[in-house]
Predict the structure.
Amino acid sequence: MTAPERERNPARTREAILDAAERLFAEQGYEATSLSQVGQEAGVSRGTPGYFYGSKAELYRAVLERCFTEVRQAVQVGRERALASGEAPEIVLEGAVSDYFDFLVGCPNFVRLIEREALTAAGVLPDAPAEIQVGREALAALAVELGLDPSPSGDAAQLLLSIVALCWFPLVHAGTIAPAVGVEMNSPAALAQRKRHVVDLVLYGVHGRAAMAPRA
Amino acid sequence: MTAPERERNPARTREAILDAAERLFAEQGYEATSLSQVGQEAGVSRGTPGYFYGSKAELYRAVLERCFTEVRQAVQVGRERALASGEAPEIVLEGAVSDYFDFLVGCPNFVRLIEREALTAAGVLPDAPAEIQVGREALAALAVELGLDPSPSGDAAQLLLSIVALCWFPLVHAGTIAPAVGVEMNSPAALAQRKRHVVDLVLYGVHGRAAMAPRA
DNA sequence: ATATACTTGCTAGACGACAAGCAAGTCATC
DNA sequence: GATGACTTGCTTGTCGTCTAGCAAGTATAT
């Protein structure tokens, strides 16, 4: 009868901690985030994150792992949808780029975490097999779809990297470089405009590469 | 006769500290770098950085300031050279993109510092007037050179942001995303290949935009 | 010329503020 | 009442800052 002060639910608590940690690690970075802060943000005491995840490093690993699996699933879904559509290659590419752009817009934490990870020399994880696999799959799909050279550092890889760069970079620097060069990224309309430009640029690139013979 | 244990030279010491701090802040980030580490790297005691720069935050500011002035000078030089060349717009653009790419390759510390700064919400500096000015100047130059819409978020701004993204992003993610999608960035040849791709893509973009009427 | 006053580069010890991890404790739920 | 969820107290270590002090130079006076 007595209203329980706080209902006990380890699964829920674990997830709350993971959510809080993801946000804080993404926003402030690993070093600048304390376990007390994570606990407070998750609505538990300062010892609870350590209780469930053992150490700060392992909590961080758990955050990254969850992010990666989510991303992998999303990419998987997107890829299957694109391959099954049966549209012309350019239409498929256009849709894929657009989807990728939207996906990143919806995952600011993921973007920031990966960005920080890239800045941490040699990273926390020895190498990210999950991510690499996703990248390779995307590379193969792109090469097949457009009939490009699928070899490492070949045309398909270069184009894929450019697509990622064009979608990714403006989000990371939405508050710094983008406005500095005259591009706002703060409204849905501005984002849509940016997305259209990216899609166009990629398509022009594919056209150009097909039209003019690539230099000897 | 007696070899001076350590010649006393405040200017030299200040610069040594600044060099060490730049490297460490760029590589490890602000939080993960201690003043003791800076002192050790600079060949002085752990108290000396604080003695010369007052506080850790001010030392960081000094590092950023020096970086910015160096970059501004480099951009200035490049812009004047490009404008004075009298070549066709496309050739000028090609050279500018190529130069920018090379410049970033030569300034890994700068790239990492700015990247970290972008991740620090609201940044350390209220807004970077120097950087914004550089961006605006580049925007105007690009719009004039190619006859594009110079308004904020217009074609010129979008293209400029794309150029920056294409040059910048692969360097930051040379160890993570680039290899994951099949692009190596570790040898001069690989860098040259990447640069050529970027230049081509930008030129194709300009061509495409000129050839096909941009969508209504 | 030499001694003395004074400045300045630089070091090292001390102190306070956290933070991470551990251990003991408390409380709910089966 | 036992297991597991969760908290709180404590230890240990590190970092930034402050400050006292040494050493090396410079200026001034004799």
Q: What stands out?
A: Residues 68-212 of chain A form one domain. Chain A has two domains: 1-54, 68-212. The mean pLDDT of chain A is 89.
